[in-house]
Design goal:
Helix content is 48%, strand content 16%. The protein is an alpha/beta fold. The strands form two sheets. Strands 1, 2, 3, 4, 5, 6, 7 and 14 form an eight-stranded mixed beta sheet that branches. It has a six-stranded mixed beta sheet with strand order 8-9-10-11-12-13.
Length: 508
């Protein structure tokens, strides 16, 4: 065997192991959800990264592909080319991070690796097209014992802690005690703080909420679906509440189940008003309305027996390639199927809050409670729920529509993200979807009454209206991103500082 063939075999073996390490991280994500595998995969990745002299980019890129190709597979149903481009782009970023880590002296790599890679993850939360904050390490850890860290530092802290723990395991034998010991103490301190940190308080008020899932097939697009059939399924499901004699305080319908030119002049607003009168409860309803031939709005509105819109929130963060087509002109010139998204949603600009009347017929008045609202895609962004809670939201509503996606990768990661938002804010989350999953999530991140895919079901639960702020609501992601940047700088310059200190001591 020649040297060249040995080298090729070595590269191939390294690439296979890197992809396998990334695949373990993917298996920690929902719907698989074997959360300890994330630590195993990250530790293996870290070890490969340390040993792969001159080939660290291959390790980071290969591990990224093993992680993102399964973890982001739901994107195939939005845009197959976009899915492949996104997986490759995010893997490239981690490849670059691995190169940076390799240029740090080995004694400092234990802190450089987690810092560099989680900074890449923070970039992925915002870039491109507003970010793709799915398949994160934090989502993989939501079912594990580290989840309470989210109330202190959200996704950034939870992801970093997991990666740092794996790095500590992988590089403990080569890291000096003077570096290893402070890291261990910091991890212990953060975990203790997360368990003791404030998670909000009950106000003493409760709300009996009914979340309506109309059911129907998955894997369908709006352009291929009769919108009236969707409405009728939800009317039928809600009618079962009336027939049972239920008395909810609030009824929530999913995202964009009513698709009409103008909601307040539609037959649907009167149908909702009649149900509101019969149940004695206001409705939160997801609607889409026409703006013109090229655009539409996606909103959640508050309606009661008066058949008027009492309050409205228009979705701010839109789904790229789902609700709008980025670079439409360029893609059309290249022959891409841009007509799969024939019109673009208009982004809202309002605060993520809805005023919900506490008493039917009172309208928006002093007898009003505030609900933080994150529509569908927005639940993946901690800042949206945080904004609504800071504006006085006593609970969070997440109306969504995952009916376009086959399989349950997206839906299960959305449930996990609702759990993250609940822990981060100390609020109940009501998630409701036309074809699943719908569920209630309590402030500790526990899931209640989760529906099955495609079933028609109404779930009801009495939830507490809460107040107070967690550390994360007060601080957001910014301070933690800055802290990671400082750690990475420390790892880069730490050896120089140590060397200068040593030379100074020798002179004395």
């Amino acid at each position: 065997m020649t040297f060249a063939s040995e080298s090729r075999e070595s590269r191939r073996s390294l690439a296979v192991r890197a992809v396998a390490a990334g695949a373990l991280i993917a298996l920690a994500l929902p719907p698989w959800g074997w959360w300890p595998l994330a630590v195993v995969g990250l530790a293996w990745w870290t070890r490969l990264e340390h040993r792969a002299e001159g080939r660290r980019f291959l390790v980071g890129f290969g591990a990224g592909l093993g992680w993102f190709l399964p973890g982001l597979a739901w994107m195939w149903f939005l845009t197959a080319p976009g899915y492949l481009i996104a997986a490759v782009l995010f893997a490239l970023l981690h490849g670059a991070a691995s190169v940076i880590v390799g240029r740090v002296p080995s004694r400092w790599r234990m802190i450089a690796g987690p810092s560099a890679h989680v900074l890449v993850e923070s970039l992925r939360l915002a870039f491109p097209f507003g970010g793709v904050p799915l398949a994160t390490i934090a989502i993989a850890q939501i079912a594990g014992p580290l989840a309470t860290l989210a109330r202190v530092g959200g996704v950034i802290l939870l992801s970093w802690f997991t990666w740092q723990l794996a790095s500590l395991i992988a590089l403990r034998s080569i890291t000096p005690r003077t570096i290893r010991r402070p890291v261990v103490l910091a991890l212990i301190a953060l975990l203790v703080v997360s368990r003791l940190a404030p998670d909000g308080d009950d106000t003493g008020e409760t709300l009996n909420v009914a979340a309506v899932q109309g059911g129907g097939p998955q894997g369908t697009r709006a352009i291929d679906t009769d919108p009236r059939k969707v409405v009728e399924r939800h009317l039928e499901a809600t009618r079962s509440l009336v027939d049972s004699g239920a008395a909810p305080d609030l009824v929530v319908w999913p995202e964009n189940v009513i698709d009409v030119p103008e909601f307040e002049r539609s037959r649907e607003v009167n149908e909702i008003a009649r149900l509101s009168s019969e149940l004695g409860a206001p409705f939160l309803v997801g609607i889409t309305e026409d703006v013109d031939t090229e655009s539409f709005t996606n909103a959640q509105v508050v309606v009661d027996s008066s058949a008027t819109v009492l309050d409205r929130y228009d979705k701010v963060r839109r789904v790229p390639f789902g609700e709008y087509m980025p670079l439409r002109g360029l893609l059309r010139s290249l022959g891409a199927p841009v007509d799969l998204v024939p019109r673009d949603a208009v982004a809202g600009t309002g605060t993520a809050i809805l005023a919900v009347p506490a008493d039917i017929g009172q309208g928006v008045s002093e007898s009003t409670r505030r609900a933080a609202v994150v529509i569908s895609w927005e639940v993946f962004f901690g800042g949206r729920a945080r904004e609504g809670v800071k504006a006085g939201g006593g609970y969070i509503v997440n109306p969504t529509n995952g009916s376009s996606y086959t399989w349950t990768i997206l839906q299960t990661q959305q449930i996990a993200s609702s759990r993250l938002r609940a822990i981060e804010t100390g609020r109940w989350v009501v998630q409701v979807a036309p074809t699943g999953f719908s569920a209630f999530v309590d402030p500790k991140g526990r899931v209640h009454d989760r529906t099955a895919v495609s079933e028609q079901k109404v779930i009801t639960r009495e939830i507490e209206i809460r107040r107070g702020r967690t550390i994360y609501v007060n601080t957001g992601d910014g301070p933690w991103i800055v802290a990671l940047g400082c750690l990475l700088v420390l790892a880069v310059v730490g050896e120089r500082i140590r060397s200068r200190s040593s030379r100074s001591s020798d002179r004395r």
